[in-house]
Specification:
Radius of gyration: 12 Å
Structural class: mainly alpha
CATH topology: Non-ribosomal Peptide Synthetase Peptidyl Carrier Protein, Chain A
Oligomer: single chain
Distance between the termini: 10 Å
CATH superfamily: ACP-like
Length: 83
Amino acid sequence: MTASRAEVFNIVKTNILEVLPDLDPAEIREDRSMRDMGANSIDRADVIVQTMEQLGIKFRISELAEVKNIGGLVDFLVQRTRA
């Protein structure tokens, strides 16, 4: 599946809100990390796995070690949908 950057961001945002339902949607910005928004390691893994399933892509979560924020995650995922 090839997805636009906006589509991938919306999928990530939806999944973050599903895992962290008390979070204000306005808090989800590309310059912030999930950790900044209060997500623990299990929350972050849940968001990643759900997003991978929705996009139909697979990769090792360890490949995200250099990703620092939501924008970086979106860029990584968009690149993977095009691979």
